[in-house]
Specification:
Two copies of one chain form a homodimer. Chain A is of the alpha+beta class. Chain A is 42% helix and 23% strand. The longest helix of chain A is centred in the middle third of the chain and has 27 residues, at 121-147. The N and C termini of chain A lie far apart (52 Å). The structure holds a DNA duplex.
Amino acid sequence: MSKCEQCIVRQFNSLKALSKEELIRISGCKTTRTVKKGEIIFEEGENINGVFCIKDGICKLSKLSANGKDQIVKLVVKGDLLGQRSLVGEESANLSAVALNDMEVCFIPKHEIMNDLQQNSKFSFDVLQQMAKDLKESDDIIVNMAQKSVKQRLAETLIYVYNHFGNNDEGFLDVILSREDYANIVGTATESAIRILSQLKKEGLISTSGKQIKIEDLKGLEHIE
Amino acid sequence: MSKCEQCIVRQFNSLKALSKEELIRISGCKTTRTVKKGEIIFEEGENINGVFCIKDGICKLSKLSANGKDQIVKLVVKGDLLGQRSLVGEESANLSAVALNDMEVCFIPKHEIMNDLQQNSKFSFDVLQQMAKDLKESDDIIVNMAQKSVKQRLAETLIYVYNHFGNNDEGFLDVILSREDYANIVGTATESAIRILSQLKKEGLISTSGKQIKIEDLKGLEHIE
DNA sequence: AACAATATATGATATTTGTCATGTTTTAAC
DNA sequence: GTTAAAACATGACAAATATCATATATTGTT
């Protein structure tokens, strides 16, 4: 089994604040799991009892609303931690996590990491900083949801995906989301998302090939009214 | 000047995790300020360089969106802390804070509290827990914004105000918000908020007297489709 | 008390977004 | 490769919400 102390992914999240001894202890009790595209890592309401460290792949965090639609709240990437909020709040998961492509995920049980969180102030401050960042992002999303049009929100989502995950060799966005996923990020009907993507295509701001999307005019997307 | 060690408000926020010595030190450097209804405590983009502790009163946290409208993200009450997120993230304020009634607010400068945050693990864990709670609330608001109607959101806002701030002697909500404030919480046009309040009145779910609002049928409000 | 400023109320209308229906394309399974 | 299922696309229409106009009520100020 691979070791946390040597895992490069750790550099990108709060685990970097742990000492070598702490890492070795955690490495000894962690489990690693591969998750196929579409599979559930955990579900809303579930007692996750630990923290996930994303070694590879991308997943979505979403919540089922009363009307039966999933709302995607955040995309989580290779290097990110998952489940800290529930751990700290000592609650069951508020959101579900579903893989968007094939993933490799490590799981660190609660009892192993909770001590570090309460006693290693460098580590807990790092977790605190990450959570502060998440909170800012969520607050900004609230403002966007409330004040921007579906078209603007969809354009911003495309830009977000471009900025965070980049393009593949042929210039298409490297993360492939279904139209339904885009709708569930933006908070609109799937048909509306499809319609607006068609519109953006007609306007020359993007082009598509199957599910793949290419950004043709970033400035144009940024300036949608 | 009154002393933090003796301040009852402290019991309601993370400052309760500080030792008597730390509190005395902080008490010595804090400043207290009264803020009149409508006055600004700090503005988005401002460098606040410290934390506010709300001794009395209520304020709104809001952000100006591109279309010129304020979006209210959170109501903050007596006992709450303000500015922790910016402090932890070492950033300027992401939101503006404006008093909704007359307030008394203490200010603790950054350099005094930052040490405690990094070294008193009980304190920083308490701040972390509060932030985890805020993050959960914000994520839930995103879902509501995206998936619920304006009428549902407005009804939920009324219920929220009722649950958190209660009624006055005559049964009216104890916190008085303008119709514009309600619109800015819900993320809609002021006219729409007014219209829906009129509708709720006709349906017998609430009654009003000037700016005052009385909840007549809580269950009814909860079950709006 | 009179006045101006601000907030509330409501109608008419335009715009945005959602829903339902239906057809086409792509993907996955055998 | 064929076929069934899922995803994508688009039209027609309905519903929700925003905008503009205007009237009334409330509040604070002199």
